[in-house]
Amino acid sequence: MSVVYDCAQSPDREDGLAAAASAVRAGRLVVIPTDTVYGIGADAFSASAVRALLAAKNRGPDMPVGVLVGSWQTIDGLVLSVPRPARLLVEAFWPGDVSIVLPHAPSLSWDLGHTDGTVMLRMPLHPVAIELLREVGPMAVSSANVSGRPPASTAQDAREQLGESVSVYLDGGPSGDPVPSTIVDLSGDEPVILREGAVSTAAIAEALGEEVRTR
């Protein structure tokens, strides 16, 4: 049976974070608040947990899951290398609304979907999310909704869509504006914006000191 914890209340927040961490380590799903919309998350290194996440969303591996991290330094162990453009974007926008696509480290045994050897990384600007990520490590996270339906802006929205497929719901109050992150692909020879979201193309170009094309 799933449980909802009100993270605005101190005892509930501590209990909720502990329950969520336990669930993630056991390969179960949790819903967490982020700085965009609510996310459904799982241990990024558990293939079965990621498959359960995709099943809960009624989504296939053709739409791979991104990974949230709790600190800048975490990405060094997840990718093949961290090029200068990635460092510039991390310094300018993390924690925040920029997702970065890089070739992942070949030693990692994870299955996030059909990623073509890359991983999409972001550090969210939300204290509850960051605290959980720092406790359990990188998490595979997608918007907390059934595919084709609007992303959840509250924990209740998420629960109405995802129900008992999720073990723990962390209620952080209504999310901010439901604007997705901007996705910047740095896996090739030049930066490419795959999706313009909360951060404009102009702001990305300014941080990188070069023109950036969009797909």
What are its keywords?
DHBP synthase; 6 helices; about 220 residues; globular; alpha/beta; about 20% strand
Q: How are the secondary structure elements laid out?
A:
Layout: E1 3-6, H1 10-25, E2 30-32, E3 39-43, H2 47-57, E4 66-68, H3 84-93, E5 98-103, E6 118-122, H4 127-136, E7 139-143, H5 155-162, E8 168-171, E9 182-185, E10 192-195, H6 201-208, E11 213-214
Parallel strand pairs: 1-8, 2-8, 4-6, 5-9, 10-11
Antiparallel strand pairs: 2-3, 3-7, 4-7, 5-6, 9-10
Helix pairs in contact: 1-4
Note the overall shape: globular
The oligomeric status of these chains comes to: single chain
Structural class, by secondary structure, is alpha/beta
Question: What share of the residues lie within helices?
Answer: 25-40%
Please, could you describe this protein's structure?
This protein has helices at residues 10-25, 47-57, 84-93, 127-136, 155-162, 201-208, and strands at residues 3-6, 30-32, 39-43, 66-68, 98-103, 118-122, 139-143, 168-171, 182-185, 192-195, 213-214. It is globular and about 50 Å long. Strands 1-8-2-3-7-4-6-5-9-10-11 form an eleven-stranded mixed beta sheet, with helices on both faces. The mean pLDDT is 94. The chain is of the alpha/beta class and 215 residues long. It has a single domain, classed as DHBP synthase, CATH 3.90.870.10. α1 packs across α4. 29% of the residues lie in helices and 21% in strands. α6 links the parallel β10 and β11. One of its GO terms (cellular component) is cytoplasm. Belongs to the SUA5 family.
